Amino acid sequence: MSIRPCGEHERTAVLEIVNAAAEVYRGVIPEDRWRQPYMEWDELERAIAEGVVFWGYELDGELVGVMGIQPVGDVELIRHAYVLPGRQGHGIGRALLEHLQGLTPGRLLVGTWAAADWAVRFYRRNGFELVSPELKTTLLETYWRVPERQIETSVVLANPPLEEGGQPPMYDISTRSGSGVAAERSSE
Question: What is d(CA 125, CA 65) in angstroms, rounded to the nearest whole number?
Fold first, then answer.
């Protein structure tokens, strides 16, 4: 077992893991947010170009789980966290998350679908707390590039927790590069 950065030559494997694991969303997330494949090649390339670094969990020479981390302003975003369906429930996601938590002393944020209650439970078990709906909207508009419909149907969790009523971390979104809201559909 090893946790390591994914190489450029492993992008196809990353996509295969994401798309296999994302099947669990079919019929759960809003129908207008689902597509097959869940993540396409150009979306993966765009995420990497915008600073997402994918880490992989390798078991017996096979990549079985991936999780990205992306520095955005004053926080780090956990992005695209997936484990192959046959390997879920064995601590792989937790090991990846703990590894990424160890890479940054600052605040981590993760966005996921509100209907994906298993994902919310996973992050809560691992020290993340849900933010209020109002703060969620502010954070998604500040740190992610997602359409309004996705903002409506997502949640954000923070570690360490954000104080309710306190000021969220702030970042000037105008300094981000990329192709805009319509270009990115995924918040995980």
Answer: 19
Share of the chain above pLDDT 90, in %: 85
Cα separation of 117 and 42, whole Å?
Answer: 28
Angle in degrees, CA 126, 149, 166, rounded to 5 = 50
Q: How far apart are CA 116 and CA 113, in angstroms?
A: 5
**Structure tokens of 178?**
């990329």
Residue 181 CA from chain centroid, whole number: 16
The single-letter DSSP state of residue 4 is E
Give residue 169's pLDDT.
58
Rounded to whole angstroms, how far apart are CA atoms 107 and 142?
15
Give 124-164 as a 3 state SS string: HHCCCEECCHHHHHHHHHHHCCCCHHHHHCEEEEEECCCCC
Residue 133 has pLDDT above 70, yes or no: yes
Question: Domain 2-183 maps to which CATH number in 3.30.70.890, 3.40.50.720, 3.40.50.2000, 3.40.630.30?
Answer: 3.40.630.30
- pTM, to two decimals: 0.87
What are the C-alpha distances in Å from 64 to residues 18, 57, 169? 10, 6, 33
Q: What is the mean pLDDT of the chain?
A: 89
